[in-house]
């Protein structure tokens, strides 16, 4: 491995209950299966990056001094992620409470816990790091400080702007790559009337919008790229976006072009939707390669045309 990706972000223990549907406000739903899974956007993306292969993966994270931290660390170590752990004795490890419906929809509430304690000064040395991958489940001031430090050191900076919140121009100025879904694009681009306008409003060299079961759209260096989604029967979409982000940045770190990186990320996120849990659902490089090697499953020219028409391109 000649490239290194550093992920700085959140780590949670997910408490997942399956139910017929996600409860409406004030409604009580009788659930069925209950399990815990290692999760958190940062940790999920680190696992996806490590399993994608071709780039060494490191992660800066904050955990409590409690039992909830142990399965998270075990999962990250098992995926081959090198950890830079900030241990918080006064805060619990972050947790997420997830209701997963039979149609693969979910409702998620996060208690950040130790994630809120991640600070600017915790960023490790960036020697040998090619990409820094960030999210928004840690304090925004910390995200900005980490992005500035990496940008100043010549490290390329990717941000997955999730959960959605308005982004200061000072943060956008540090980014090489911004990844958002449709809802996040609405927030960070100020409620644009369409996708093209939203992309044009963001002063970042490369912006990618994930479109769920439709695929993804990218605007990079004046070019527009489309990647239709792989058709799957979804079971749990919890970590699909994180899988996309980690796989994409790993592909870019190992030298793949953006179009192929989008293809690999789309394949990995599709496979993640067919399995339960967050990190437990993220596929390996071999599984993604097997899917890409099946011409019957790779989206064809008709799928590209349909996505272009839906995007009004």
From TrEMBL:
<feature type="binding site">
    <location>
        <position position="236"/>
    </location>
    <ligand>
        <name>K(+)</name>
    </ligand>
</feature>
<dbReference type="InterPro" id="IPR011611">
    <property type="entry name" value="PfkB_dom"/>
</dbReference>
<dbReference type="Pfam" id="PF00294">
    <property type="entry name" value="PfkB"/>
</dbReference>
<feature type="binding site">
    <location>
        <begin position="40"/>
        <end position="44"/>
    </location>
    <ligand>
        <name>substrate</name>
    </ligand>
</feature>
<feature type="binding site">
    <location>
        <begin position="12"/>
        <end position="14"/>
    </location>
    <ligand>
        <name>substrate</name>
    </ligand>
</feature>
<keyword id="KW-0067">ATP-binding</keyword>
<comment type="pathway">
    <text>Carbohydrate metabolism; D-ribose degradation; D-ribose 5-phosphate from beta-D-ribopyranose: step 2/2.</text>
</comment>
<keyword id="KW-0547">Nucleotide-binding</keyword>
<feature type="binding site">
    <location>
        <position position="275"/>
    </location>
    <ligand>
        <name>K(+)</name>
    </ligand>
</feature>
<dbReference type="InterPro" id="IPR011877">
    <property type="entry name" value="Ribokinase"/>
</dbReference>
<feature type="binding site">
    <location>
        <begin position="241"/>
        <end position="242"/>
    </location>
    <ligand>
        <name>ATP</name>
    </ligand>
</feature>
<feature type="binding site">
    <location>
        <position position="277"/>
    </location>
    <ligand>
        <name>K(+)</name>
    </ligand>
</feature>
<feature type="domain" description="Carbohydrate kinase PfkB">
    <location>
        <begin position="5"/>
        <end position="284"/>
    </location>
</feature>
<feature type="binding site">
    <location>
        <position position="238"/>
    </location>
    <ligand>
        <name>K(+)</name>
    </ligand>
</feature>
<keyword id="KW-0963">Cytoplasm</keyword>
<comment type="function">
    <text>Catalyzes the phosphorylation of ribose at O-5 in a reaction requiring ATP and magnesium. The resulting D-ribose-5-phosphate can then be used either for sythesis of nucleotides, histidine, and tryptophan, or as a component of the pentose phosphate pathway.</text>
</comment>
<feature type="binding site">
    <location>
        <position position="242"/>
    </location>
    <ligand>
        <name>substrate</name>
    </ligand>
</feature>
<protein>
    <recommendedName>
        <fullName>Ribokinase</fullName>
        <ecNumber>2.7.1.15</ecNumber>
    </recommendedName>
</protein>
<keyword id="KW-0460">Magnesium</keyword>
<feature type="binding site">
    <location>
        <position position="281"/>
    </location>
    <ligand>
        <name>K(+)</name>
    </ligand>
</feature>
<feature type="binding site">
    <location>
        <position position="137"/>
    </location>
    <ligand>
        <name>substrate</name>
    </ligand>
</feature>
<keyword id="KW-0418">Kinase</keyword>
<keyword id="KW-0119">Carbohydrate metabolism</keyword>
<dbReference type="InterPro" id="IPR002139">
    <property type="entry name" value="Ribo/fructo_kinase"/>
</dbReference>
<keyword id="KW-0808">Transferase</keyword>
<comment type="similarity">
    <text>Belongs to the carbohydrate kinase PfkB family. Ribokinase subfamily.</text>
</comment>
<keyword id="KW-0479">Metal-binding</keyword>
<feature type="binding site">
    <location>
        <position position="272"/>
    </location>
    <ligand>
        <name>K(+)</name>
    </ligand>
</feature>
<dbReference type="InterPro" id="IPR029056">
    <property type="entry name" value="Ribokinase-like"/>
</dbReference>
<feature type="binding site">
    <location>
        <position position="181"/>
    </location>
    <ligand>
        <name>ATP</name>
    </ligand>
</feature>
<comment type="subunit">
    <text>Homodimer.</text>
</comment>
<feature type="active site" description="Proton acceptor">
    <location>
        <position position="242"/>
    </location>
</feature>
<feature type="binding site">
    <location>
        <begin position="210"/>
        <end position="215"/>
    </location>
    <ligand>
        <name>ATP</name>
    </ligand>
</feature>
<keyword id="KW-0630">Potassium</keyword>
